[in-house]
Amino acid sequence: MIKKIALISIILLAFACKKEKSAYELIATIDPSANNKKVEVLRRENGKRTLIDSTTIIDGKFSFTGSVESPDIYYIQIQDVNGTLPIILENSNIAIDVYIDSLAASSISGSKENDLIKTYLKSRKPFRDVNDRLMSRFRLNQSTTQDQSILKEINISYDSLKKAANIHDVNFIKDHPNSGFAAFTLERLTIGKIITKNEANELYHLLPRCH
Fold first, then answer.
1. For the DUF4369 domain, which residue ranges apply (predicted)?
2. Does the CA dihedral 128-133-137-143 come out positive or negative?
C-alpha cells in the first residue's frame, strides 16, 4: 500500500510543475452517422469504471467542459461502438477527431500527454492484431474440432504475445520517463503484478521528481 501511494504521488508530481488552466474544454468531431448516440466519460476506480459525465452527439460533434484537480486517465465510450478511447484529462483545451471504426486511431491534440497515448496505442496495434487472430482461431477451434493440440498451440502463442507486450510497455516507460503516462503505465504494471518488484523499483526511480 505504501509503494502504491508513493507511485500515485509520483504520477501527480509528473504534472506538478506544469502551469495549467483552471478548467478543461474537450471538443470532438465524429462521423454524422453517430448522431443522437450517447457519449460517456468514464474513470477507473477500484477496478471498476465510474461514469463521470455524458452527452449526446449532435451534428457530428460532442463536447465536455469541467475541471479536474489533477490529470488522470479517463475513457470515452460511445454508444454502439466497440471499445473505449483512453485520454488524459487535464485542464486544457483538448480536440479529438474520433474515428468511429477504430477508436485507437483517433486523433487527439492539445496535450503532449494525449499525443503520447496516441503513439503508445499505435505501437501496441501489432499486439492487438495478433491477439485478434488468436481469438479467431480459438473460437473457430471451439466451434468445430475442439482439437487440443491446436488449443495448446494457441495458448503458447498467447503467452508469448503477453510477454512481448509487457516488454514493450517496460521499454515505453524507459523511453518516456518524464511523462505522466509513463507513471500511469507503471502503476498498471505494478498493481497487476505484471512485473517483479525489482523491475518496478528500477522503473520507479526513472520517473521525475520536483525539487
1. 27-116
2. positive
Cα 78 to Cα 18, 40, 183, distances in angstroms: 31, 6, 27
| DSSP notation for 144-183 | TT--HHHHHHHHHHHHHHHHHHHHHHHHHHHH-TTSHHHH
Spatial contact of 187 and 11, defined as CB atoms under 8 Å apart:
yes
Q: Which residue has the cell 504534472?
A: 15
Confidence at 20, pLDDT banded by 50, 70, 90: low
Q: Which residues contact 197 (CB under 8 A, 6 or more apart)?
A: none
- pTM of the full predicted structure? 0.69
CA atoms within 13 A on the CB side of 199: 16
Look at phi and psi of residue 172 and say left if phi exceeds 0, alpha if psi is from -120 to 50, else beta: alpha
Strand positions, DSSP E, the chain: 24-29, 38-45, 48-56, 61-66, 72-78, 85-89, 93-97, 107-109
pLDDT at 5: 40
Other CB atoms within a 10 A radius of the CB of residue 185 amount to 21
Separation between Cα atoms, residue 166 and residue 169, nearest integer Å: 5
Q: How far apart are CA 126 and CA 15, in angstroms?
A: 30
First to last CA, the chain: 24
3-state DSSP: the chain helix, strand, coil percent, rounded to 5?
A: 50, 25, 30
Residues 87 and 54 sit within 8 Å (Cβ to Cβ) = no
